[in-house]
Amino acid sequence: MNATLQHIERIVRDVLAELDVAPRTAVATAPKTVAIASQVAAPTSDAQSLTLDVRVVTMNDLAGRLDSVRRVSVPRRAIVTPSVRDELIRRGIALEWADPTAPPPAQATRLTMVAMGVDVDMAALAAGLACEGLTVEPRETDCLIAATDQLATELTESDTLAALLTRHTATALCLANRRRGVRAISAVDTAGVASASAQVGANLLVVDPSPCTFFRLKQMIAEFCRLGVRACPKVFRAELG
């Protein structure tokens, strides 16, 4: 009899996988004649609970796992085979239908963007970058030394990257990279930004916007921020960290 039930369960699993039956339909057609203590609940993690994250719950999923268990939690739309329901009833174990746990939100990257002596619509650029999912703080300055010093201080925050828009890229790089913890790079296109950023775990992008279109400038900064805050590569950490 047990062999027959296991054979039936295997056939059910194979057919569902072959047909890719939607979970909602499966639940709607699942047997409802078995009375079992069940409820909707958040997934539990205490020692008396067993949480399963499978589409079809069979006896194989329970094998050797029910000792001291008082509750079994399954996804809201999972299919629970009749033999599993019977076994839970026999053992007095409650069946819970749990909503899937949402992953924690990723930490947002904050971009401090400073323009020094360039003709750039900072509000429009910030709005365009916001559409890329960035939190942008745009501002302008007339002193390159003050700008690099302030950015160096802000880059000590764990969630922060910075972009400095200036025609004096060489000077800005020298000023910025003299500060501990600042890894400034410059590039003329998105490929260069990606390559240089990966090499040193860059946290400051220095760009001369004068030869760039608005779209190209936005894409370069977006590419710089795409992977979020990067750690300094271990091989350079003693010198650049």
Distance between the termini: 66 Å
Number of strands: 11
Coarse morphology: elongated
What class, by secondary structure content? alpha/beta
What does this protein look like?
The chain has helices at 2-19, 23-29, 59-62, 82-91, 122-130, 144-154, 169-177, 190-200, 214-225, 237-240, and strands spanning 38-41, 49-51, 56-57, 71-75, 79-80, 94-98, 110-116, 135-141, 160-166, 184-186, 204-207. Helix 6 (144-154) crosses helix 7 (169-177) and helix 8 (190-200) packs parallel to helix 9 (214-225). The protein is elongated, with a radius of gyration of 28 Å. The strands form 3 sheets. The chain has a 5-stranded parallel sheet with strand order 8-7-9-11-10, sandwiched between helices. The protein has a 4-stranded parallel sheet with strand order 1-6-4-2, with helices on one face. Helix 8 (190-200) links the parallel strand 10 and strand 11 (204-207). It has 2 domains: 22-98, no CATH class; 110-240, Sugar-phosphate isomerase, RpiB/LacA/LacB (Ribose 5-phosphate Isomerase B, Chain: A). The model is unreliable at 19-45 (pLDDT under 50). The protein contains 10 helices and 11 strands. By secondary structure, the chain is α/β, with parallel strands linked by helices.
